[in-house]
Amino acid sequence: MLYMIIEHFHDGNPIPIYARFRKQGRLMPEGLRYISSWTSEDLSHCYQVMQTENKELLYEWIASAKVLGLEEENQCGGSES
To answer: Is 69 within a domain?
Structure first.
């Protein structure tokens, strides 16, 4: 299943999240797969598409990153290529 994750950067500042990413990677549990991401023009939000068959893995990852700005999750429909 695909999921859309929306990050709302605290105070519109993406620097803490990207600094952690460069240093530690995505810190995803086994079984959760990154598909794609993009940011809003003003860099206040990041949209990520993730894939997993176990939604609990997604919630685990969101909980570990929530302090940095992950705030929303939406299940996506559609096809895979």
So the answer is: yes
- Give how far Cα 50 sits from Cα of 1, 11, 13, 22, 56, Å: 8, 24, 22, 19, 13
pLDDT value at residue 81: 47
Instruction: Identify the domain containing residue 32 by its residue range.
Output: 2-76
| pTM metric for this prediction | 0.72
CATH code assigned at 51:
3.30.70
24-36 per-position pLDDT tens digit: 777 789 999 999 9
